[in-house]
Structure formats: structure tokens, C-alpha cells
């Protein structure tokens, strides 16, 4: 039987785990790249990690900063497809670790592309590009022709990887595509991204495990979709007849404040906002309890105010469109984190640690 082989970097992350499930369901042999950590970092894929359940799922140690190892792995596996999802993916953190962010996100993509260029078998390469490249946007909505204007080391690193991918396509004939994905979330989202911080925070608050949710810029506007829908787009980009660049988005925008309200509704909170700027508070009208406050520690040196994608090209050429609505997404995440908070309530201690990092 002949099946495709795929390498996924970032398999332990949100998208990597959903993509692995998708590829395994399609009969792929999946090789996940995991970086060494002092504690287990495979929680999102542990359910796949049984060779009995999925005999075609393999894990290999690799760091994106280590070109020789990536090259060796590609030679050994001889994959049909490589999905480069690995990254230092937190925008706020990238201001603290700019050089590391560039090394992983930009050089990591280059390591893959150089390794592919030196192979004599055909490989299709996917680069996880980002709407954060549009930064302080120069046009709205943003599509494949909108100029980039990145505002963070993360955004810059992704612009570099985007152009490297394009350059290896045009210059060296590598099948190398960019998916320019707008924000996408899920119950597997990292705990220090705003949506997950809100869903876990409000679930804990509801059960009396946390007194208050502290957030940064409530006015930021994002185009939020569901990660499970977006990995389907990623796969379609790689199957397309030629390599190209595609925006993947819902086209719908909401503020951070609106995400708080949507999750609040799930929990039966009736949130009203009082005050402005640093003094703004979200109050549960039913109990008069302040449940959200603004903390400047979560502000970024440069902010990206608004992102709104125009995914017409993906819809037309890939037949892709999102399935999950904004309020469904908020409910899926809220429900999942309520279950987690209930577990914490029973145990009398946190199941996951969400320390008050400055992000
Ligand atoms: P994520 O949950 O933060 O996952 C990032 C993955 O990269 C993790 O598996 C992480 O490993 C791995 N990684 C980090 N540094 C590495 C290194 N030095 N070497 C090897 N692996 C490393 O991110 P995500 O939300 O799934 O996003 C997937 C990709 O899409 C990222 O490239 C992100 O920048 C990009 N993207 C995401 C969005 C979004 O809204 N989610 C939008 C556009 C683009 P550990 O588990 O060990 O940390
Ligand atoms: N993380 C965080 N924490 N963000 C907050 C907070 C907070 O307490 N309060 C407000 N925000 C605002 C941020 O300032 C930002 O404007 C917005 O909420 C979204 O922040 P994140 O959820 O951290 O995501 P992001 O938009 O910066 O980056 C994500 O999306 C990119 C695509 O546009 C990441 O997934 C990137 O990897 C991805 O490329």
C-alpha cells in the first residue's frame, strides 16, 4: 500500500496536533518533530502517541535552530510533504526574545528550504505565515496583495520566512506555499493567548477559583476562527495544483471585549463596561461584581489594532471556507475550560498553571 509521508514541525502545538489528526485520518504516515523539554510537552498529542492505535505515527527529536538534524531527518524520512508549523508563536513574548524568535521562525524555515533544495526527490513545503505580517494594516480587509507592515519581532520573523518561501519557489522551483492564517483558536490554544486566557479565567471565576481577570488592550480587533477548520485549509494549500500564497480567515471581526462578553454569556454573566482606558472595568450586572480589569503589564510596545482577512482566493481555488462561527468558537472553548475548572475545583488545586506572566 502506498501512502504519503508528512513531517510536521510544531506537532506538540495547537495546529500541529489537529493537523496530525487530520493527516492520520487520511492514511498518511506522520513524523512529528518534538523539541526536548525537561517536562512532558506532548499533552496535545498523547492520544495519538500509541503505536497500537496509530501505527503510522512517529516522533523524532528536532529543534528548528539545528539545520544539520533537520537535513538528516528529511533524508531519512524522504517525506512527500513538510508542514513547518513550529515557531516561537507569541507576539508579546517576541519583544522579550527577539533574536531567539528570528532564529526559530525565520532561520527554521530557511533550514527546511535549504534541505529540500538539496534533495533529489520531490517535497511539498508549507510555511505557517501569519496575518501578524500585515501589522499596522495598510488596507482593510487584508488579502494576498496587501503590503506587509509588521510591528513586532514575531511579525518580522514571519515576513522573512514568507519571502524565503516565495524565493525558493520562484528561484529554485521548490513547491513551497505560504498559508497566511488569521488568528485561530481552540480548547488546545496556549494559555497565554487572549482567548484561552479569557475562557479559562472566566471558568475559574465562575467557580470561585479566581477573583478577577486582568487583560491588556480590550479594543484590539481580530478575525478569530477555529483551528480545526484552519488545518483543513493548510492541507488543501499543500494539495493544490501549484505552490502559491493563500489568506485563510473568516472575514468577521470582533474586539477582545466582545470575546469576553461572548464567554460571559455562556456562563450566564451579564457584563457591562464602566470607565475608560486603564480604569475600564467589566462588571457582572447580576451580582455587581467586577470581573475584568485592565492591567498595563499586558500592553505591548507596539500594538496591532485590527486584522480582518479576505479569504476569497482560498474559497475560489481551494473550495475552503470556515465552518465554525464566532459564538460557536467562544462556546466550544468556554465549555472545555469549564470542565477543566470543575476538575480543579474537585482536586482543590490548579490542573494547569497560568502564572501572571507579562503577556
Ligand atoms: P503553538 O501552539 O504555539 O505551537 C508552536 C509549536 O512550535 C509547538 O509545538 C512548539 O513546541 C514548537 N516550537 C517552538 N519553538 C521550537 C523550536 N525552537 N524548535 C522546534 N519546535 C519549536 O502555535 P500554533 O497556534 O499551533 O501555531 C502554529 C504555527 O502557525 C506557528 O508557526 C504560528 O506562528 C503560526 N500561526 C498561528 C496562528 C494562530 O492564530 N494560531 C495564526 C497564524 C500563524 P513546544 O510545544 O515544545 O513549545
Ligand atoms: N496575549 C494577550 N494577553 N493578549 C491580550 C491580552 C492579554 O492579557 N489583553 C489584550 N490582548 C490583545 C493583544 O494585545 C492582541 O491585540 C490581541 O489581544 C490578541 O492577542 P493574542 O491572543 O496574544 O494573539 P496575537 O494576535 O498577538 O497573535 C496570534 O495571532 C497571530 C495571527 O494574527 C498568535 O497566534 C500568532 O502566532 C499569530 O501569528
Describe this structure in words.
The protein is α/β, with parallel strands linked by helices. It has 10 helices and 15 strands. The chain has helices at 14-25, 67-77, 91-94, 98-117, 153-172, 194-206, 227-239, 256-267, 312-318, 326-347, and strands at 5-9, 29-34, 57-61, 81-84, 124-130, 175-181, 184-185, 213-215, 221-222, 225-226, 245-248, 254-255, 271-274, 281-284, 289-294. The strands form 4 sheets. The chain has a 7-stranded parallel beta sheet, with helices on both faces. Strands 8-15-14-13 form a 4-stranded mixed beta sheet. It has a two-stranded parallel ribbon with strand order 7-10. Helix 1 (14-25) links the parallel strand 1 and strand 2. Helix 6 (194-206) packs across helix 10. The longest helix is centred in the C-terminal third of the chain and has 22 residues, at 326-347. The protein is globular and about 65 Å long. The protein starts with a strand and ends in a 12-residue tail after the last helix. The model has no long low-confidence stretch (mean pLDDT 96). Bound molecules: NADP nicotinamide-adenine-dinucleotide phosphate (NAP) and guanosine-5'-diphosphate-alpha-D-mannose. Guanosine-5'-diphosphate-alpha-D-mannose binds at residues 89, 91-92, 130-132, 182-183, 192-194, 197, 215-217, 220, 222, 256, 298, 300, 303-304, 307, 359.
Amino acid at each position: 500500500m502506498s501512502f504519503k509521508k508528512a513531517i510536521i514541525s510544531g506537532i506538540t502545538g495547537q495546529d500541529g496536533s489537529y493537523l496530525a489528526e487530520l493527516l492520520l485520518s487520511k492514511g498518511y504516515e506522520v513524523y512529528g518533530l518534538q523539541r526536548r523539554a525537561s517536562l512532558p510537552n506532548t499533552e496535545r498529542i498523547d492520544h495519538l502517541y500509541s503505536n497500537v492505535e496509530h501505527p503510522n505515527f512517529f516522533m523524532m527529536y528536532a529543534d528548528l535552530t539545528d539545520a544539520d538534524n533537520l537535513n538528516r531527518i528529511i533524508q531519512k524520512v524522504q517525506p512527500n510533504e513538510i508542514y513547518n508549523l513550529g515557531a516561537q508563536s507569541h507576539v508579546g513574548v517576541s519583544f522579550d526574545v527577539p533574536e531567539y524568535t528570528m532564529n526559530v521562525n525565520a532561520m527554521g524555515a530557511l533550514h527546511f528550504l535549504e534541505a529540500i533544495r538539496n534533495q533529489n526527490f520531490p517535497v511539498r513545503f508549507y510555511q505557517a505565515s501569519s496575518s501578524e505580517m500585515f501589522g499596522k494594516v495598510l488596507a482593510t480587509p487584508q488579502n494576498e496583495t496587501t503590503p506587509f507592515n509588521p510591528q513586532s519581532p514575531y511579525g518580522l520573523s514571519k515576513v522573512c520566512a514568507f519571502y524565503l518561501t516565495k524565493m525558493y519557489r520562484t528561484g529554485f522551483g521548490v513547491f513551497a506555499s505560504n498559508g497566511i492564517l488569521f488568528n485561530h483558536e481552540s480548547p488546545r490554544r496556549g494559555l497565554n493567548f487572549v482567548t484561552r486566557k479569557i475562557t479559562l479565567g472566566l471558568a475559574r471565576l465562575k467557580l470561585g477559583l479566581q477573583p478577577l481577570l486582568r487583560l491588556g488592550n480590550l479594543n484590539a480587533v481580530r478575525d478569530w476562527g477555529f483551528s480545526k477548520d484552519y488545518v483543513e485549509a493548510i492541507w488543501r494549500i499543500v494539495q493544490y495544483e501549484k505552490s502559491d500564497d493563500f489568506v485563510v480567515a473568516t472575514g468577521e471581526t470582533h474586539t477582545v471585549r466582545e470575546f469576553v462578553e461572548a464567554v460571559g454569556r455562556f456562563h450566564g454573566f451579564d457584563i457591562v463596561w464602566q470607565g475608560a482606558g486603564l480604569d475600564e472595568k467589566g462588571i457582572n450586572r447580576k451580582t455587581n461584581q467586577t470581573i475584568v480589569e485592565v492591567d498595563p503589564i499586558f500592553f505591548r510596545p507596539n500594538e496591532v489594532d485590527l486584522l480582518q482577512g479576505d479569504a476569497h482566493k482560498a474559497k475560489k481555488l481551494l473550495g475552503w471556507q470556515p465552518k465554525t462561527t464566532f459564538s460557536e468558537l467562544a462556546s466550544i472553548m468556554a465549555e472545555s475550560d469549564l470542565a477543566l475548572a470543575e476538575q480543579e475545583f474537585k482536586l482543590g488545586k490548579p490542573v494547569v498553571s497560568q502564572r501572571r506572566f507579562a503577556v
